[in-house]
């Protein structure tokens, strides 16, 4: 049986409220997907949307971004929504850069702000598109 398409959700601290609101708004479109989230983001999303299938990995600064990057390299991730905070220095900035790089290398949709995330959701929620996405 084919694995369900996975979709990753990440938000820096200053953007977590916004991501939670976004996911609640798009709960119906996200429901068919297996959702992966970095640790703290995942905990917030699970509390807000208990019906969604959310698997948290480690917190971003502790390797969560790299775990998501590894999933991209393994061809297990179809898209990534990452509400990034452009105004706060991050100790794990290099991890964020590496994750962004892998999304580019493997050509998966990566939304870094809400405007792009809205566009990604409206396209990606079409399961036919997901099924036609070749595995890397
Ligand atoms: O820092 C992050 C992404 O770089 C997000 O990690 P958390 O969801 O654990 O806060």
UniProtKB/TrEMBL annotation:
MGS-like domain ranges (all copies): 1-136
Residues of the active site: 65
Molecular function as annotated in GO: methylglyoxal synthase activity
Biological processes annotated in GO: methylglyoxal biosynthetic process
Positions of substrate binding: 12, 16, 38-41, 59-60, 92
Major enzyme class: lyase
Pfam short name (any one): MGS
PROSITE patterns linked: METHYLGLYOXAL_SYNTH (PS01335), MGS (PS51855)
EC number: 4.2.3.3
Reactions catalysed according to its record: dihydroxyacetone phosphate = methylglyoxal + phosphate
Extent of the signal sequence: none
Keywords, sorted A to Z: Lyase
GO cellular component annotations of the record: cytosol
Homology family: Belongs to the methylglyoxal synthase family.
Chain's role: Catalyzes the formation of methylglyoxal from dihydroxyacetone phosphate.
PANTHER family in the record: METHYLGLYOXAL SYNTHASE
Protein name: Methylglyoxal synthase
Species this protein is from: Breoghania corrubedonensis
């Amino acid at each position: 049986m084919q694995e369900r398409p996975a979709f990753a959700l990440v938000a820096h601290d200053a953007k977590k409220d916004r991501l939670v609101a976004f996911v609640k708004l798009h709960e119906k479109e996200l429901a068919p997907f297996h959702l992966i989230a970095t640790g703290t983001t995942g905990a917030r999303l699970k509390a807000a949307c208990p019906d969604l299938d959310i698997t948290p990995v480690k917190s971003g600064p502790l390797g969560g971004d790299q775990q998501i990057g590894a999933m991209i390299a393994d061809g297990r991730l179809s898209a990534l929504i990452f509400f990034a905070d452009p105004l706060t220095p991050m100790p794990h900035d290099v991890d964020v850069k590496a994750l962004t790089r892998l999304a580019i290398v493997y050509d998966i949709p990566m939304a870094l702000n809400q405007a792009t995330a809205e566009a990604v959701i409206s396209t990606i929620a079409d399961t036919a598109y997901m099924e036609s996405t070749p595995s890397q």
